Amino acid sequence: MKLLARVFSTDHKVIGLQFFWSGLLMALFGALSAMLIRWQLAWPWSEMPVVGGLVFPKSGGVPSPEFYSALFTFHGTVMIFFVVIPLLTGWLGNYLIPLLIGARDMAFPVLNMISYWIMPFAMASLAIGFCVEGGSAQAGWTSYPPLATLTSATPGSLHGQTWWLLAIVLAGISSTLGAVNYVTTVVKLRAKGMGWLRMPLTVWALFLAACIQLAGIPVLTSGGILQLSDRVLGSGFYSASGSPLLWQHLFWFYGHPAVYVVILPAMGVVSDVLSVHARKGVFGYKPMVFSLLGITLLGFMVWAHHMFVSGMNPALGMAFGVATTLIALPSGVKVFNWLATLWGARLQLTSAMLFALGFVALFITGGLSGLWLACTPVDVYMHDTYFVVAHFHFIVFGGSVFGLFAAFYHWFPKMFGRMLDERLGRAHFVLTFVLAVGVFLMMHQLGLAGMPRRIADPTVYPSLRHLVPLNVSITWCALLLGASQVLFLANLFWSLWRGPRAPRNPWKAASLEWEADSPPPHGNFGAQPEVERGPYEYDPRTDGRDFQPQAVTLFPPA
Amino acid sequence: MGNQLNLFPENASTFASQVDYIYLYLLLVCAVFALGVVVAIVYFSIKYRRNPTHTAIQQVEGNMMLEITWSVVPLLIMLTMFGWGAWLYMRMVTPPKGALDYYVVGKQWMWKLQHPTGQREINELHVPINQPVRLTLTSEDVIHDFFVPDFRMKRDVVPGRYTECWFEATKIGSYRIECAQYCGTKHSQMIGLVHVMSQADYDKWLSGNLGAETADAAGKKLFEGNRCDTCHKDAPDARGAPLWGVYGTQVALRDGSTVLADDDYLRESILHSTAKVVAGFEPIMPLYDGQLTEEQVLQLVAYIKTLKAKPKETQ
Description:
Shape of chain A: globular
CATH superfamily of the largest domain in chain B: Cupredoxins -  blue copper proteins
Order of helices and strands of chain A: HHHHHHHHHHHHHHHHHH
Largest sheet of chain B: 5 strands, mixed
Number of helices of chain A: 18
Largest interface: A-B, 98 and 86 residues
Oligomer: heterodimer
CATH class of chain A: Mainly Alpha
Helix content of chain B: 25-40%
Helix content of chain A: 55-70%
Structural class of chain B: alpha+beta
Radius of gyration of chain A: 23 Å
Number of domains of chain A: 1
CATH superfamily of chain A: Cytochrome c oxidase-like, subunit I domain
CATH architecture of chain A: Up-down Bundle
Structural class of chain A: mainly alpha
């Protein structure tokens, strides 16, 4: 019974860590599929190492085109719906929201527990897809009908697509339940004195990301149910006689804001990490909050920029083009405020800080390439080429994943009560940053040369054959990038058991979570904290501290 | 900018260079901003690293003038990007009057194209230079995308509806057609060529494609043009039932019954391939109902009748 109570725990910290471990597991599969995709693009139809012999014993380890389609479908699906969204909202949202606002738990602990335990079913659905006739879904993570609905269109649309849809619908339900909790908790359970404008930016960002989920996921989930109905009940919502474009609208209505679900929390984390490790308050707290709000609202008005060449009315293209251009404005404000935060500060280049700095550099690059895609005539050329792949990997890898790493190095001592090895952490940063740039920067050039995404074999086109060396070097960087994550895993597991015990407040940070034990006990705080000031007060005190804790501190200065 | 350097594709339409100018403008602005930010990060990281004068750190809450400056200046720059783009985009989606009308049908995994004068082509399109060309596109199965990089032109090809796009080629030559919308297993092999010709050469090409031909010769062309031979080939790994010598024989079906391979059976199998599937094969052949004219079906049947049991070595 004790074990059961621990597994099906309603403690937000346990649930958060469950999201962490399952997200990590799925990330391993996602990364493996990415490396296999790169293998095929560099050396088409050659023997795939490791998995080749297992999956294709008959062809001597050479993949089939169907397997390649299944690979990139799986990679996109896993990374978006099972890695970055659950990690940034499920892990960070669950673990951090109550601690950072001074609450003892979530508003609805049982609902919270259910939201996690739906995920294993979603993962199982995804896995079952590989075992059915025709193989796993092969219509891309965007699953456009009729490719996804005509069972004859591609082998994966025979049965695999049905399981894919089930996985997406289940993951959507899990996220919705989580989002209900995050929003309610932030609105109702803030500690005494924790006004809206005293919340750390991480909380603001997690709160707004949950709002996006609440408004967007039901649309995608209903869209998914309609597609299930087309496949299982024989309806024709998305058939040629229905409307294939309807799916694209429903999918992107959440599919695009989902990008903001995974970038806003990373922005919040980076704001906090930069401030703590630069020993300086966030520059322009209010503009930072308003720019988060601006991104949230504008984020719902840009979805059809994925559809400029779809045959949609060109006038609509103009409207979505201008909204997409405008969203660069709040993003730019954030970047300038981060720089201003660093100006005249006292930087401590810890692993967390390095990843936060890396985030700013990669995010601005990915954000700026977004302006090209917002500019319709240029997008007509770039759409569905590798330029787009380069752009969104800068945002999702350079942005979301770097934000996740920054959060990992910053809050690991709080979450596990141990310190990480800083030297390993810095080495991990250097390799990850350099290799990520090596992988994704050159993809812009592939797109510029006209290489479409999702093609299994770029050497089919005589005009693309000169890109082979570029594809090979990108693949080498990708393989090394994957391998260098061993440093991260080694650090994680070694420190988990052997790392030095973490003090209560190793970074001398001012926000509330550092008032709790490391790791915090059930209920988080001994006495209910009372908040007296904002989260970013870093000026030298007469008592020898250089920061002012948000709450009346329960502990005398060390 | 030529294909020797391969940095950019060819500039072969009236739009190509105009798109490239916007592209270069964006590149310039974005490079300045990105480099500026990255340099600032590196500079701050070095200069303020473990800043010893910590006690002198000035804690600044913010600065309204700064916030306004770095909002308004980028906003104005972004509006120039949008305005320029919008102006060009409206021209790109409005075909001029008097453009030549071509029709494009996409299907897994080929392009079928028809000239205003009725000539049909597969995976190749011959067009005259300096002449606006309007394409009306549709698909027989899933969504495809007609992409000619050298023209900076791209348009989704959607089943159940027509989309359109236009271009005016400015350079004689052959330019690749790519399918840019993922469309299934052989997506990467759905390729073609646009041949831009002088008006005189184009007229000559058109007149050379009017010659009368016999039904089975036309059928042979249909058979190869529709890529029937990719599946219906004389090889052990063929995905389609063998056709050599099949005419007039009894064929065993998947459901255990047999059927006489006569004209009606062949016609039915072309248009409704799943109705009677040959034993040992999967019902994977696309349905040609509504895709072929009766005349074309007849030509195909005529061609299949000529196939003898021992096919000639073709390769």
